[in-house]
Structure to design on (268 residues):
């Protein structure tokens, strides 16, 4: 679809801000392409792959303009640092983004929620400069557990990637593909969509310095059963909120590991 020249110019002037927010690896980027096959839900199956070339400004601009395929960026760079990390809540139907944001506000977490392509949520933690991937992943994993999504994937998926030996890390499809008409938008507290300018403003309010991130505390609630005092945040959350669908065996295994360690080995 052809866009009015004025709208195209707006997107083009926003591209530098967008790149600054979602900067990542300089060695590779990702793409997801539709195939001619369909899954049981009637959705096109896709094929994802990594291209070992530097993502260019033109690729970011094409992404915002809605050209296919959309751009996927690997958040972890060659120094094993990141400017952003993401909880990937992979839910396809009826996800309540507004309720998720309510919980984020209740815990006062510095997070931004975007609608994912599947209708789930990408929950972002941002910093103003590159920080160690291990630090930002650790903080976001604790927040994911507190929000009830301990089993959700965290991007980057690794604390370290040896790119000198051919490693690349995993990519995430960026929001705001086809920015002016996108379904992958940031979400306001009332559940409505953020346009790109509003997203930039929201980002500036939640991004942290490395020092702020280091000092960020994810407190355990005082009502936690004494038997779980000191347990990993994911187990504490599961004990309070119940085991997510399809995670029973994994949860019971991890409760077993924790119990063995604290009661048999440590003599708790």
């Amino acid at each position: 679809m052809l866009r009015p020249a004025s709208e195209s110019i707006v997107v083009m002037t926003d591209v530098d801000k967008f790149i600054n927010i979602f900067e990542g690896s300089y060695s590779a980027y990702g793409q997801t392409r539709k195939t001619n096959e369909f899954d049981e839900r009637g959705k096109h199956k896709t094929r994802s792959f990594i291209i070992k070339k530097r993502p260019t400004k033109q690729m970011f601009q094409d992404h915002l303009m809605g050209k296919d395929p959309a751009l996927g960026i690997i958040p972890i760079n060659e120094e094993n640092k990141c400017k952003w990390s993401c909880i990937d809540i992979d839910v396809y139907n009826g996800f309540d983004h507004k309720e998720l944001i309510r919980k984020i506000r209740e815990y006062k977490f510095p997070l931004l929620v975007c609608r994912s392509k599947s209708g789930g949520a990408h929950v972002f933690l941002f910093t103003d400069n590159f920080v160690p991937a291990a630090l930002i992943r650790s903080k976001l994993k604790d927040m994911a557990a507190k929000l009830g999504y301990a089993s959700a994937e965290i991007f980057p998926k690794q604390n370290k990637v040896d790119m000198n030996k051919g490693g690349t890390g995993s990519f995430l499809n960026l929001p705001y593909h086809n920015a002016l008409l996108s379904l992958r938008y940031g979400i306001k507290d009332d559940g409505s969509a953020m346009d790109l300018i509003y997203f930039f403003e929201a980002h500036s309010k939640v991004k942290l310095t490395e020092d702020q991130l280091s000092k960020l505390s994810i407190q355990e609630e005082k009502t936690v059963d004494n038997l779980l005092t000191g347990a990993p945040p994911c187990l504490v959350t599961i004990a309070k909120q119940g085991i997510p669908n399809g995670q029973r065996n994994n949860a019971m295994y991890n409760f077993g590991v924790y119990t063995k360690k604290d009661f048999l080995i440590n003599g708790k």
In short: The helical segments are 5-21, 57-65, 97-107, 133-147, 196-206, 210-215, 233-241, 248-265. The domain at 5-219 is CATH 3.90.920 (DNA primase, PRIM domain).
